[in-house]
Amino acid sequence: MFPFCRQPRTLDSISKSYRWFIFLTGVFEVSLWSGTVFGWASVVHVLKTHGVYGHLCHNESVSVRINVTDREEDEAGPKTVQKIFKNCNEQDRQLALIGTVAMALYTFPGLAVGYALHYWGLAFTRLFASSVISGGFVLLSLTTKENPGFLWGASMMLSIGGNTLRVTCLEFANLFPDHRYTAMSVISGSYTVSAALFLIVQ
């Protein structure tokens, strides 16, 4: 059905250097994109700063005073100032609900990914995963205080696309028949690194 997605007939037709290139590319992709949804706590901090779902906060919002050491110093040394952050239970519940749904959906596409790999091939499935992840980041960039609904689609697409990408990259372990399980372990363990992506960019 998709002739451009056909894989090489034999492993010997792929050079060893090219096999390493494919494998390391897969590890890089998994480390960067496949588990971003698990860094949800860092996203919540940024979303609350920008007032996403802030309209849910009414009179029940609570002001929290936090002592912060100012970087500017005078003759007496560093100054300690108080900064006020508003905490809203309804906003917290909404953001927590979105994060919970996204994480629950992470393993959801497993059966569908297996079907796609079997009938449509690795290349098509990887293109689908990349498209879903890209769409998720686009929706996340469009999420604002005025349009918070995009966050639902962004979180779900990042979750489904991330797991799909991780499963497809596990196929790269077949490039090294004698070390297949080691390669699978490296790829499986790499996705946890991507949880730090939002922490870095926040």
Automatic annotation (TrEMBL):
Q: Where are the transmembrane segments?
A: 20-41, 95-117, 124-143, 181-201
Question: Keyword Transmembrane: yes or no?
Answer: yes
Q: Which UniProt keywords apply?
A: Membrane, Transmembrane, Transmembrane helix
Please give the name of this protein. Uncharacterized protein
